[in-house]
Amino acid sequence: MKYGYTIVYVSSVAETLEFYKKAFGFDVKLILDSGVYGELATGETTLAFASHEMGDANLGGRYIRANIHETPLGMELSFTTEDVEAAYERAISAGAVPINKPERKPWGQVVAYVRAIEGSVIEIGSPIGA
């Protein structure tokens, strides 16, 4: 078994991809002509976005839609960087909603939290052990 993808269902795949490009610097790897699915170039594991219509088709409409105006889902996406403060500020400038400013954790990692435009919680952290 190998971990292959994280797919987040969203209202607009194109707008979400553009946000992640501006906020975190990821390039768009793929977007289907239909606009219902797209991927970011994030490294070994793919971060993808699919339309709620695809989510309805795949899951029979039985899922909780992430929503920036509602309580976040009990999960987060985590991105690592050497400069958490700069990444946090870039994300906020691109439209992310701040949750927690960068702070040093007891294990030495610097971590900040934001919410992306589609409602996902994003952890921006320094590499553990760095």
Would you mind describing this structure in some detail?
- The chain has helices at 13-24, 52-59, 84-93, and strands at 5-10, 27-31, 37-41, 46-51, 76-80, 97-104, 110-115, 121-125.
- It is an alpha/beta fold and 130 residues long.
- It has a single domain, classed as 2,3-Dihydroxybiphenyl 1,2-Dioxygenase, domain 1 (Roll).
- The strands form 2 sheets. It has a 4-stranded mixed beta sheet with strand order 1-4-3-2.
- The protein is globular.
Question: Key terms for this structure?
Answer:
130 residues, 2,3-Dihydroxybiphenyl 1,2-Dioxygenase, domain 1, four-stranded mixed sheet, 3 helices, 8 strands, alpha/beta, 23% helix
Question: Quick gist of this model?
Answer:
With 130 residues, the chain is α/β, with parallel strands linked by helices. The protein is 23% helix and 35% strand.
What is the mean predicted local confidence, pLDDT?
95
Our measurement of the CA-to-CA distance between the termini, rounded to an integer number of angstroms, reads: 29 Å
CATH architecture: Roll
Which class best fits the helix and strand makeup? alpha/beta
Rounded radius of gyration (Å):
15 Å
Strand order of the largest sheet: 1-4-3-2
Supply the CATH superfamily name.
Answer: 2,3-Dihydroxybiphenyl 1,2-Dioxygenase, domain 1
* Whole-number count of domains: 1
Tell me, what's the shape? Answer: globular
- In the CATH scheme, the class would be Alpha Beta
Looking at the structure, the CATH topology is 2,3-Dihydroxybiphenyl 1,2-Dioxygenase, domain 1
Q: Total number of helical segments?
A: 3
Largest sheet: 4 strands, mixed
